[in-house]
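Figure 2 data, in text form.
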Amino acid sequence: MLGQANILVIDDEETMRDSCRQTLCRDGNRVEVAGNGSKGLAMLGSESFDLVILDLRMPGLSGMEVLKKIKQDDPEAMVIVITGYATVESAVEAMKSGAYDFIPKPFTPDGLRAIVKRALDRRELALENVLLRSELKASFGPDVTVGQSKLMKQVEELVQKVGPTDTTVLITGESGTGKELVARAIHRHSCRRDKPFVVVDCGSLVENLFESELFGHVKGSFTGAVATKYGRFELANGGTLFFDEIGNIGVNTQTKLLRVLQEREITKVGSSQVVKVDVRIVAATNKDLQKAVKSGAFRDDLFYRLSVVPIALPPLRERRDDIPLLAKHFLSKYNKKRRKNIVAISERAMRALVEYEWPGNVRELENAIERAVVLAENDVIEPSDLLYYGLTLETPSRPNAHGIPRLADVEKEHIVKTLKMFDGHRGKTAESLGIDRKTLRSKLRRYGIE
């Protein structure tokens, strides 16, 4: 179980409540108690619990009624029922209503500990499965070696120093410089390395769904909320939460995020339950957040809370010494992945790689090497193999009879460069060019850009 478990015991017998609390508190858990079903439901309405231990036979609101209400509000809730009547019928009915397991009275402290441990392990596994499904959908950056340049050695030293702390880190750099990789390296160097590393892609989330993604929501809280959902904060509990492109979130979301960072607790959309969270925050951006603060687009208090330790990643063109090392690394990777046997990159091709400006940075370099491995007809990569949308790295615009490039060639080359800058993302490319997506699609067809 991740950290201290938060457990609620609902039982009308005071001696049973006290014995459960004492037994479970000795294992480091936080235990709250309720003397009846109504009080228990009220406590569940204001606070989130990892596990509920519920007596089936109580005066007033019965344990079975309480169980059904708990599962109605949160189908993922973990409930163990206590019964003084160890009959098959009561156990089966409770299990059908959503109980994880049951324990008959009388039971020993060791028996209680064992069943509670199994339940908490099952809950942790369920959370890990949710996280795994999320990770499988995520788009990870290139798995690049750090490099030998002076600038990257300085970055590596910072990662090693800040990793073991719980300090919040803000990673800055152009798109494709490997900000997520640095965030993962920080996580690997921390005491949270065995806990989840959860990514929040602030650039791809819709603003009105951002709160649901971060904090989760309960069933029926808005149109389309057909089931209770865990938010990224809950999935990352005990580990690291990485906000990629944090500069893209709106001011309203910034305010809510700041409150969570201050209070270390969240509330699901549509719920009044408070959920305590223990996460380390690492954020990244390709924007100038200080400029955004001055313009009022980014809260200054959130900026200062995020940038306790700033790490600036240099663009690839400022660390050209690393390009041969990276190119060889990617050559080896894609030889294995594509089952090819490209033995080397020619001197002319390597010179072209080193001299190119790489607006898409390491991600663009990786893509270029992968394409070269796929398209190369010989066992050595040549400049002609370094294609991007049908152009070589050394291809200039074709001039007319007066030595002046044709307007169409200039436009085509500009579109290609902008596409590279945004790693082929058409929406961002169209926005940067000041045209709509329909116009961009038309131009791509006209110029034969795939």
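Caption note: Residues 109-137 form the longest helix (29 residues).
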